[in-house]
């Protein structure tokens, strides 16, 4: 047990301090949301890549910094930007999901073409996985792609395509072998969002914002070589991508930051001349949540150590999405409770409007429900924990249910 | 011994539900809710005809002369349909305040207008509900000054009722000089809250003498019960919709309601929610007929139903999966209705505090 | 809505007052537990039957009072004895489960023979349903009964037979038609516990007491006519019996009494010179539990009204076992928490020792777990609520699983 | 940066577990637990050889000179096997009290005996842990009087350590004149609590001067962390046994672990419990190396792990169905071990209170 940083990591921390001191003034404002990165953000991203504070482990041949993977380094870097409140660089689905996927299973040509522009922020990706009829059952995707004359012809519909309205490219899970069993009939394509036949419609959520889109495909032509791995291997590729998404969702730093924000608010706001933290029932709930966040924070350190050793965390990793999203919801629940009637007014017309404190908490609160559901609902997560983490048996096969297609 | 709604009460609730489902299908709800004032003139007039606004107004003033239990039965129907209509404050609390504190002349002046749907009274509390935000009001003779946030049913009011910390209540016209009402759209587009600012506004004290805080507290109690009833209705709709969705939606080759994960989630909701309905009835009946238990049950029903409502809202949304999170099914109107009810007139923490005071476990 | 008693019920209440005033001195001490009723208790029981305060609705022809069923009357009677702290008469499995079953489906001879002695307490019954290998899956019972020369020959084992060590008789669910599908192969027999071949072994639970028994059958001969309804109809009969058990378990009076006891304790005990109720976190938990108990209390009134109208309460009834047992556990959890270290000492050698306050709460706390599990665990209850109460579909049939026997 | 037990720590935990599983199978556990003194001479001697008692005793006094994290790793093994052995108080707290408050002479007098397994020190607190029952002690010169309930590891003590409200700690022999120890079997037959009565008993004050309440509080903190570690071990055993049972037991024609109801219950237990292990490690490490965080984490880990332990204990018992409720599988030993740990040295309510004080949110 040693929580001190090694000499190498301390040196990195010092470099980061120097970098931030020198360049912070050039950084764009953190946040940003539903728009293409602007010129200032792109410049900042390029500077981060150059210094190895973004795309650090992407090989130099593909435009990255080419460092060996050292997850403690990554944690030190992330931490420095959070502490300083400085924009930590782009974090979009192209960078966090597509790039690692191409590095793992893409062709040399695909890596050469896409990784560099993606990590610099010049090419923005969106994800084409979920479908209205499939939900958590990703493998039930029905969007069809038929190979004809050197092109896949795509027809169907995707949902939850979050940046589709401004993305350049999409990575798409679709059914190319309709006669094969469900999981073996899928392929993973990449395509330009400018291809004719694609229609993007905004999808409003309970937050009041159109954070997502629905994307419709009508005879969309995708060159045959735009496939990652082979036909029928889409499920395998998609799971590589999802692995990286699941890591993102279970971030214990977010819990800690949220706890701090909540604690600060309860110490600041008053009701009837009394600080909220002086109200026993609110304080007690805060204390309970603090205990839980502490547990996940320590757990996060353990996961980091696993990763730094290249150990598969197994059960320890599988529980994070379910555990952390539920805890997030309970943190925001206490926040909106503490705000009481004064927190009820709510105007969220667009993401460009900066919300007041109450609105921000309510957006978080609603969005937390989305996070509990998204990327595999709690029921799916509990199946994964039970079956993969605890080795409990899967549901027996059903009579009268087609095992393959549905 | 008979613990149930009467035939009349049930029928009135059903006719309200029927009317509202008819007049406020999802597309109409979106349209009516969008302004966020909690008021739609067409709907209001229809409900006037059904007799909603005069429910508690004595017959001699054109109302039905009924009690809080009747109001609770109505509120369950309003919550069940997320109705865009002022009720808990403007109809129930304002009427009860006039009945319990007002002079005969004041009752004669206002109650017929309430029953006829011509008077809508927003209600604000200075203290007492544990609300966050400013809440102070002082009376100088008959001149009211101060600032009160979180006033209810004040999206399109004709009058305002302000409850003072000493147990008195005062009425002013919403358009009087020295009165400013800023109504805010809330998370729940079906009901607004308002900030009231008074600068020496002419005000009328209800009753000739101060009847003490107990009378006004009983008005607050009734409001809490009615909001709890609204939550039971809204939560029941969320449960019903989750069950219907679970029977229809297939994943992994099965209707999802056949998975224990989903089935047990629905069972949990039902187990929590079903006793809440009886609890609301008892609490409402206590307001009408069991004075010794009225306050404690009002505090407890608001707190407990608030907690159950939040759980049901979350679980139902989860059962709907991604569709529950989008705006497409409109499920969030009920989610937010429940969240609003939880906070208004005091959240669970405050209500339990009041329950402890009522039982002498702590001093106020 | 009218919570006042009718004239008839007020009159009954007055009669009860008079009865209790006159006879209370003759009543045995309440409680009693794991032993045969003594002579004083039997006398008391007979007096209660005579006045219609026990076995009230059992026809006079079978030794009862012969009143029409009026559940409000039953509630008024139960309430009077609870309020006065006077023994309310016997409540054992013979009276609460077997008698209603015989009244519903027994032969005239069976009724004549068993109902009278049972309601007077002269014959004590135990229940032979559960088996170690079957648990919540009652219909999987493997105890065999073969008809030979006018007798069923019973072999097998039952568990949870609570009063088997002093009972005169048992009602037994056993497999008489092993070749028929699971639910159609059972029969319901009644037999004397003195029949040779029966061995009763005490079964200790986590409370430290032997509250139950295991009962073993080796070639036990039961006359063929001791069957209730026909061969293969045991599952139907058992469900009639269980219906009455489930009503017993979901009693909201118990919740109210327990809340009072808990509240009184928190108002009385001190820590460091401070009343426990003055400790905010304990008080807040008490308040939350009070709210829940209120909800179930009101719900109980609604169920009573349903019953008095002869209405099937459906979902309202199905939720009570799961809801009330979980709440019971949380009530006793707060009690043991409030007692703290001073509540840890624990001696439960036999049921005859009167425990101190802390021991009593801990016994309740452990026993609550048993109640959550017994009579259908929470998972079973949630299936019942979902399938029968909300009409959700049952699990599909499995491939490779024999539908009938297992 | 490395957040994990060291190889040595893990191996020591494993060798403890192995030893205890070997020496204390269910039938032996029943036998050793029956007297309820929390002490079995044979087991004790074996553990002496393994070096358990001298874990925190400096090497110069015959111990291993290790820290609270090592003790936590050991406690997890003890909880995992429901070991009938005094540890949290007699080994960890008593040793730390001598190290942090005692004079060199006192350390030399007692620590070698602790490491050698010859001295077992029961520990009682006058105040500070929020315990119910009497807890008062006063010192008149070196004469101790008073009555303290809920003392730990005092089923077969050679000495008693009494922590006074002013931050001093005193030692007496358990057999001294004026000392009476009534040890009680508890719900957890593997550990007793004792009532200590002192009537002018000769006592030795640890250290020459009062180092103030902070030093003694740190001893309490370490005890709380170690009890939390014990709970993590016990809860892990309950989870492991539930999972094993769910894989083996068939009902309705299926292994019950294939039902989502049971599978999700196991997933819930794992999701709650797994982070608790890391939390205990961090809290224990803080006792050794992060003084600024030591107290807060000690309070929080005791509270949170106490709550999780109760849930895991209940759910695991439920997964076992009727068998979990009987004595046949002995599962209740772990259920009760967890329940004991929850209360000893302050339940979750008290620990959260202390956490609030530590953060300046309330005054003590």
Describe this structure in words.
Chain A has helices spanning 7-23, 39-51, 71-84, 93-105, 108-120, 234-249, 252-268, 280-309, 315-318, 320-339, 357-373, 378-389, and strands spanning 125-128, 144-148, 151-159, 169-175, 186-192, 198-203, 212-223, 227-228, 270-271, 274-275. By secondary structure, chain A is an alpha+beta fold. Chain A folds into three domains: 7-90, no CATH class; 125-232, Butyryl-CoA Dehydrogenase, subunit A, domain 2 (Beta Barrel); 250-389, Butyryl-CoA Dehydrogenase, subunit A, domain 3 (Up-down Bundle). In chain A, strands 1-4-5-8 form a four-stranded mixed beta sheet. Chain B is of the alpha+beta class and 364 residues long. Chain B folds into three domains: 7-115, Acyl-CoA dehydrogenase/oxidase, N-terminal domain (Butyryl-Coa Dehydrogenase, subunit A, domain 1, Orthogonal Bundle), CATH 1.10.540; 121-206, Butyryl-CoA Dehydrogenase, subunit A, domain 2, CATH 2.40.110; 212-358, Up-down Bundle (Butyryl-CoA Dehydrogenase, subunit A, domain 3). In chain B, the strands form three sheets. Chain B has a four-stranded mixed beta sheet with strand order 1-4-5-8, covered by helices on one side. A four-stranded antiparallel beta sheet of chain B has the order 2-3-7-6, covered by helices on one side. Chains A and B meet through helix 10, helix 11 and helix 12 of A and strand 9, helix 8, helix 9, helix 10 and helix 11 of B.
How do the strands and helices of this protein lay out in sequence?
The complex is a heterotetramer, with two copies of chain A (406 residues) and two copies of chain B (364 residues).
Chain A: H1 7-23, H2 39-51, H3 71-84, H4 93-105, H5 108-120, E1 125-128, E2 144-148, E3 151-159, E4 169-175, E5 186-192, E6 198-203, E7 212-223, E8 227-228, H6 234-249, H7 252-268, E9 270-271, E10 274-275, H8 280-309, H9 315-318, H10 320-339, H11 357-373, H12 378-389
Parallel strand pairs in A: 1-4
Antiparallel strand pairs in A: 2-3, 3-7, 4-5, 5-8, 6-7, 9-10
Helix pairs in contact in A: 1-3, 4-5, 4-6, 7-8, 7-10, 8-10, 10-11
Chain B: H1 7-23, H2 26-33, H3 41-50, H4 68-80, H5 88-101, H6 104-115, E1 121-125, E2 135-140, E3 143-152, E4 159-163, E5 169-173, E6 179-184, E7 193-202, E8 204-205, H7 213-248, E9 250-251, E10 254-255, H8 260-289, H9 291-319, H10 322-325, H11 331-343, H12 348-358
Parallel strand pairs in B: 1-4
Antiparallel strand pairs in B: 2-3, 3-7, 4-5, 5-8, 6-7, 9-10
Helix pairs in contact in B: 1-3, 1-4, 4-7, 4-8, 5-6, 5-7, 7-8, 7-9, 7-11, 8-9, 9-11, 9-12
């Amino acid at each position: 047990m040693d929580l001190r940083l090694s000499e190498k990591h301390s040196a990195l921390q010092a470099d980061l301090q120097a970098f931030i001191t020198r360049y912070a003034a050039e950084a764009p404002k953190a946040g940003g949301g539903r728009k293409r990165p602007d010129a200032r953000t792109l410049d900042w991203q390029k500077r981060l890549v150059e210094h190895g504070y973004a795309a650090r482990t992407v090989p130099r041949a593909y435009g990255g910094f080419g460092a060996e993977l050292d997850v403690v380094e990554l944690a030190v870097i992330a931490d420095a930007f959070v502490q300083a409140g400085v924009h930590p660089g782009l974090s979009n689905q192209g960078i966090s999901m597509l790039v690692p996927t191409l590095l793992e299973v893409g062709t040399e040509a695909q890596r050469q073409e896409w990784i560099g522009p993606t990590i610099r922020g010049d090419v923005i990706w969106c994800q084409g996985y979920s479908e209205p009829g499939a939900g958590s059952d990703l493998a039930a995707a029905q969007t069809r792609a038929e190979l004809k004359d050197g092109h896949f012809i795509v027809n169907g519909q995707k949902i939850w395509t979050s940046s589709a309205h401004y993305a350049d490219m999409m990575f798409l899970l679709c059914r190319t072998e309709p006669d094969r069993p469900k999981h073996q009939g899928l392929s993973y394509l990449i395509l330009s969002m400018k291809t004719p036949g694609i229609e993007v419609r905004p999808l409003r959520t309970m937050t009041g914002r159109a954070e997502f889109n629905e994307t419709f495909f009508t005879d969309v032509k995708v060159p045959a070589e735009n496939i990652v791995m082979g036909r029928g291997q889409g499920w395998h590729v998609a799971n590589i991508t999802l692995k990286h998404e699941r890591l993102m969702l279970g971030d214990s730093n977010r819990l800690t930051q949220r706890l701090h924000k909540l604690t600060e608010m309860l110490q600041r706001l008053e009701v009837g001349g009394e600080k909220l933290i002086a109200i026993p029932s609110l304080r007690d709930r805060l204390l309970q949540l603090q205990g839980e966040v502490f547990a996940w924070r320590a757990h996060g350190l353990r996961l980091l150590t696993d990763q730094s050793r290249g150990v598969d965390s197994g059960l320890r990793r599988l529980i994070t999405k379910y555990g952390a999203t539920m805890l997030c919801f309970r943190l925001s629940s206490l926040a909106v409770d503490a705000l009481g009637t004064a927190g009820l007014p709510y105007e969220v017309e667009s993401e460009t409007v900066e919300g007041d404190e109450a609105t921000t908490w309510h957006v978080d609160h609603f969005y937390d429900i989305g996070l509990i559901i998204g990327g595999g609902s709690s029921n799916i997560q509990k199946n994964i924990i039970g079956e993969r983490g605890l080795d409990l048996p899967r549901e027996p096969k059903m009579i009268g249910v087609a095992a393959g297609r549905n | 011994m008979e613990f149930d709604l009467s035939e009349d009460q049930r029928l009135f609730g059903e006719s309200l539900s029927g009317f509202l489902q008819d007049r406020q299908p999802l597309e109409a709800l979106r349209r009516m809710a969008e302004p966020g004032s909690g008021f739609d003139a067409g709907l209001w007039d229809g409900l006037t005809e059904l007799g909603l606004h005069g429910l508690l107004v004595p017959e001699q003033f054109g109302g039905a002369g009924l009690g809080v239990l009747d109001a609770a039965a109505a509120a369950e129907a309003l919550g069940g349909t997320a109705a865009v209509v002022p009720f808990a404050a403007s109809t129930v609390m304002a009427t009860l305040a006039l009945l319990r504190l007002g002079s005969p002349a004041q009752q004669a002046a206002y109650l017929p207008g309430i029953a006829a749907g011509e008077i809508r009274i927003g209600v604000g509390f200075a203290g007492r509900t544990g609300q966050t935000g400013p809440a102070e009001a002082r009376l100088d003779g008959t001149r009211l000054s101060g600032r009160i946030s979180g006033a209810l049913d004040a999206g399109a009011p004709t009058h305002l009722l302000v409850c003072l910390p000493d147990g008195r209540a005062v009425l002013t016209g919403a358009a009087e000089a020295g009165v400013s009402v800023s109504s805010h759209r809330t998370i729940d587009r079906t009901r607004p809250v308002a900030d009231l600012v008074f600068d020496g506004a002419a005000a009328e004290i209800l009753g000739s003498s101060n009847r003490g805080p107990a009378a006004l507290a009983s008005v607050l109690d009734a409001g809490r019960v009615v909001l709890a009833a609204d939550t039971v209705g809204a939560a029941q709709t969320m449960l019903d919709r989750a069950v219907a969705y679970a029977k229809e939606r297939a994943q992994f080759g099965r209707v999802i309601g056949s998975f224990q994960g989903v089935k047990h989630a629905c069972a949990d909701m039902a187990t929590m929610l079903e006793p809440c309905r009886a609890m609301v009835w008892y609490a409402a009946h206590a307001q009408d007929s069991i004075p010794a238990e009225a306050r404690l049950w009002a505090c407890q029903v608001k707190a407990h139903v608030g907690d159950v409502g939040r759980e049901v809202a979350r679980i139902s949304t989860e059962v709907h999966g991604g569709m529950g999170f989008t705006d497409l099914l409109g499920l969030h109107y009920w989610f937010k209705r429940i969240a609003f009810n939880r906070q208004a007139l005091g959240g669970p923490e405050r209500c339990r505090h009041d329950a402890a005071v009522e039982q002498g476990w702590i001093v106020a």
